[in-house]
Amino acid sequence: MTKLIDIRMDNYINPIKKGVPVTLGFTLETDGAPPPVGSRLQFRAYGATLLHASMPTTGARMIHSEHSGFSTLAITDDQRQGWNPTRTLTFKTEQNLEPSKIAELFGIVYYQPSHEENMYCSVLVKGNEEQAISTRQVFKTKWQDQATQGYIYSYDVIVKSNGHSFARWKFSSAGLPVGTKIYANPWLDVAHDGTEGVIELVTPPGDQYLLEPGKELAVSIQLLYPAASGQSPAFECLPNLMAFPR
Questions:
Q1: Distance (Å, rounded) from C-alpha 179 to C-alpha 85?
Q2: Average pLDDT of the segment spanning 85-94
Q3: Quick one: which of 192, 178, 191 has its CA closest to 226?
Q4: Cβ neighbours of 53 (radius 10 Å)
Q5: Contact between residue 9 and residue 26 where contact means Cβ atoms under 8 Å apart
Q6: Please, which residues have CB within 8 angstroms of residue 165's CB and are 6 or more apart in sequence?
Q7: CA–CA separation, 180 vs 164, rounded Å?
Q8: 40-45 and 60-64: which strand pairing?
Q9: What backbone torsions phi and psi does residue 228 show, to the nearest 5 degrees?
Q10: Residue 4: how many other CB atoms lie within 10 Å
């Protein structure tokens, strides 16, 4: 049986803005083994709406309970190939949160096949009147990949600092079809490659990609969507796009 060691958020307290989607990272630390078949990872929402959670490409499904408002990622098949302990959740809230007060918007609970682990991870946030880094996007073009028969969509993601200079930053998009892949290597480092429905690109060490206040920086990215997804006007817009200082 997999031994759970910890559920750890990347950041202890996260600034968020009312009505703006945010993607947060967390790690499911185990003894090295992936979660077994029958285990579950539950997201308990308290005044927030879950928009996406990173999904294994196979052997898992998300179950939403209208009664409780909780969402549960259930492991239905072996995860020994390609399990990623680094996970994400994307959500938004319509609460008016104050910058000086901390609020809990989610709880993350892990269940073994036979019992609930005695471990609970709080997702803590505080209000943020202005985002540190703003984003916009431009859809460029699309074409079919002859090797996979999937479609490649090309975008420019434009990021801009709103007040301070940042040498270390990242951007993400969550809610993509599972099995999507970054097609061409971008000049940012890849933290999540799209296969679990989320991409996250981060700056490498150094200050060669310094964001200065008021100056826009464009990042080109191409995504290969699974052949089963076909082509869709919805793919011309990256969902839940956001950027954060690191």
A1: 17
A2: 95
A3: 178
A4: 24
A5: yes
A6: 210, 211, 212, 213
A7: 33
A8: unpaired
A9: -65, -20
A10: 18
